């Protein structure tokens, strides 16, 4: 049974930083691309970042480029999202998800989602 468990969310002031973690179990972690998505109140879930199986390729939505960094540790079955220079508009529930073997950015290419972790950025 695939399980993805996010952690690291919280309340932070604008300009601050948070590091999200997603621990995976029940899958051969190194076979799949992994991704982070977010959903703000009243909005659809949107793509944030994805990383290839080996970590050699990463992709970001434009609004987080230069501020967020996705990484993974295949030995620990964990994917991370380092978030710097946070803005109030980054406030959302953040989800990690298992992608396909090839890296994609459409949420329809992701299955198995975590329960999410709340990130709140105050102005």
Shape: globular
Query: Could you say which structural class the secondary elements and strand pairing correspond to?
Result: mainly beta
Instruction: Give the strand tally.
Output: 11
Which residues form runs of ≥5 with pLDDT under 50? none
Strand percentage, roughly? over 45%
The helix content is under 10%
Task: State the order of secondary-structure elements, H for helix, E for strand.
Answer: EEEEEEEEEEE
Q: Rg, please?
A: 13 Å
Mean model confidence by pLDDT: 96
What is the count of DSSP helices, taking H or I runs of 4+ residues?
Answer: 0
The description of the largest β-sheet is: 7 strands, mixed
- Quote the distance from N terminus to C terminus: 40 Å
Give the arrangement of secondary structure elements:
Layout lengths: L2 E5 L2 E4 L4 E8 L8 E6 L6 E6 L6 E3 L7 E6 L4 E6 L8 E7 L12 E3 L3 E6 L1
Parallel strand pairs: 2-11
Antiparallel strand pairs: 1-3, 3-8, 4-5, 4-9, 5-6, 7-8, 9-10, 9-11
Q: What's the short story on this structure?
A:
The chain is an all-beta fold and 123 residues long. It has strands spanning 3-7, 10-13, 18-25, 34-39, 46-51, 58-60, 68-73, 78-83, 92-98, 111-113, 117-122.
Descriptive labels:
single chain, 123 residues, mainly beta, seven-stranded mixed sheet, four-stranded antiparallel sheet, 49% strand, globular
Describe this structure in words.
- With 123 residues, the protein is mainly beta.
- The protein has strands at residues 3-7, 10-13, 18-25, 34-39, 46-51, 58-60, 68-73, 78-83, 92-98, 111-113, 117-122.
- A hairpin with a 6-residue loop joins strand 5 and strand 6 (58-60).
- It starts with a strand and ends with a strand.
- The mean pLDDT is 96.
